[in-house]
């Protein structure tokens, strides 16, 4: 195969986008609800018949405990800051890089330097803000929804979504509102290094950045 050659094409009907969510469900929520929040709400509160088609996919998902072990968003405050060093008085240790934890708000810019974006800094705080905003939108409609279940599905969407624009859709102001879930993608692992994929004889596949590596 040649560099850039497609090795897999997934049709739109196999993707989970907002178009796959029944209108009767979407109409329950505020018009300004984020795509992320809506997808997570559908996975949490959608009709069982509508969700049945995703059951096999669900069985491949990590558990909430997996997320609690690996996702700083679910770590106790004692493990993630706010200080980047151990503080005996507060019994806290920050295990995150300062650009993520918020201990390093921004770099000081020197005069005549080029402008740069800081959206990649304070990532944890940004994620927390997005999660709690989504939660507020959902409980305004379903006040009895379970926090652990919803936040789990929010993290599922967060870790399994792809940047995607529907046909004819213009890029939204918030890039997080251009997302879709691709169930087939859980057969792949992502990497930013060049790799050679070898599938048992007689097929051999070579791919380059961006890479999808098959998990066996």
Automatic annotation (TrEMBL):
InterPro entries: SET_dom_sf (IPR046341), SETD3_SETD6_MTase (IPR050600)
Alphabetized GO MF terms: protein-lysine N-methyltransferase activity
Protein's recorded name: SET domain-containing protein
Species per Swiss-Prot/TrEMBL record: Aspergillus fumigatus (strain CBS 144.89 / FGSC A1163 / CEA10) (Neosartorya fumigata)
